[in-house]
Amino acid sequence: MGLIRMGSKPPCAVSPGDTAAQAAVTMTGRQVGAATVVDGDEIVGVITERDVLGKVVAAGRDPATTHVRDIMSSPALCVQLRTSVEDAAEMMRRHHIRHLVVVDENQKLVGMLALRYLLYEMMDDMHRNVGDLVGFIMSDGPGG
Question: Looking at the whole model, is its pTM more than 0.70?
């Protein structure tokens, strides 16, 4: 399998001082399930829709006054654009997470990698392999 692929959308980021409600509005508006938490140029964490649901809503906290810094996962686990699909998937499995922050060679935020996109890439690779095997099996060999 190849390297991770990123879409062309700019990364979704929020500030540690934002409220959970603001982060939820930002993520919903971008139609993503996670955002990178940045303080200036520094990546300080990740907030997911599960964080908002579990640590705010289900806990009876007020989303309008609960800050991202209080519910984010930190430190953020990061991969680079040259990371393989297999390595990214293994990192997610090992840490029991669904999102990885993607950075460039200068550790600057590029985007967020969701588990579902890794699964799509793996499924596409399996379909290609099955097609190759079917073609091999069905082709006439020497003396066929």
Answer: yes
Domain boundaries, position 80: 13-135
Cis geometry, peptide bond prior to residue 75 (ω within 30 degrees of 0): yes
**Strand partners for 113:** 100
Beta bridge partners of 56: none
| Domain contains 3 | no
Six token digits for residue 9:
């959308």
Domains in the chain: how many in total?
A: 1
In a 13 Å sphere around the CA of 111, the CA atoms on its Cβ side amount to 13
Domain-located, residue 4: no
pLDDT tens per residue, range 7-35: 557 899 999 999 999 999 999 999 999 99
Q: What is the DSSP string of 46-90?
A: EEEHHHHIIIIITTT--TTT-BGGGT-BSSPPEEETT-BHHHHHH
